Amino acid sequence: MSGGKSGNGSRRRLIRRVAAPLAAGGIIVVCVTQVSAAPVGAPTAETGAATEVTLHTATLHGTVNPNGAETTYYFRYGRTPPLTQTTPVQSAGAGTEDVAVAAPVGALSWGREYQYRLVAENPDGLTAGATREFRTHEPRVGGRYVVRLRVTSGGAPFGEHRGMRVRRTYRLQPRKCGAAVCGALRLNREGRRGHFRDLLKHRSRGVFIGSDPFRGWCDDGLRFRSHARTRLEVRRVSGGRATALSGRLRVRARGCIHGGERARLKASVQ
Predict the structure, then answer these.
(1) Do residues 151 and 120 both lie within one domain?
(2) Which of 52, 129, 184, 194 could form a disulfide with 47 if both were Cys (CB 3.0 to 4.6 A apart)?
(3) What average pLDDT score do residues 158-172 get?
């Protein structure tokens, strides 16, 4: 104890010897005691990636640092701000290290963009991470579909008329597929004048549009040219697959067959 007191006294005498001439020159000396900052404070929250994304579910990730106080966290998410949907509140503990956190979300709409962010809270404050986005997957369109066409105009060049209902079979093959969506569909269909193959490109959520030129022969051996434009849209989904479609078909022909036809269609998986 006496050594400690002697040391303190020596330091005080040294400060007075240094401060005296400085003070004489008009310089004020202030002694500051250094205090270590406590680790307790508002938590930090960093929004991570979304994984295991499907048509209707995803898992959201992030990182939380409780900064020494008991901390809870949750994710806000939704299609547009304000993000009103939340995951259940969970504990991130009371440590001072980063903690990896995650939460599953469900009942999402397929082929939609969602926004989300991580929120952490403790007695010292609330912190929200950056807002991030992910897109749910679209259903696969593929296989054989039974198609019911209803002619809405024209049709005479093809032996059909307005109001007539025609049954066809379409074979659809997905093309250029990624994890979330297929970029195109190959459509194979049988018509009264031959076999048609169309390439439909993905245009928007569940919508594929394309056109295909075709050359054929009439019964008398003369030739004709036609151009078909098809639009297909997903209407019903089951087990990750499109089970029902709707759309429109427009055909124009020139040559030994001249004229056009418009029709609406409904298709169901076979």
Answers:
(1) no
(2) 129
(3) 93
**End residue of a domain, out of 116, 135, 154:** 135
Q: What is the mean pLDDT of residues 31-54?
A: 73
Cβ atoms of 87 and 74 closer than 8 Å: yes
CB of 47 within 8 A of CB of 54?
A: no
- Pair of tokens at residue 50: 């979304």
Same domain, yes or no: 129 and 147: no
Residue with tokens 């003070």: 23
pLDDT digits (tens, 9 = 90+) for 62-73: 999 999 999 999
At 238 the pLDDT is 96
Interatomic CA distance for residues 231 and 198, integer angstroms:
11
Q: With bands split at pLDDT 50, 70 and 90, how would you rate the model's confidence at 221? A: confident
For residue 129, what are the domain limits? 44-135
State whether 184 and 256 are in the same domain: yes
Q: Is 32 inside a domain boundary?
A: no
Structural domain total, the chain? 2
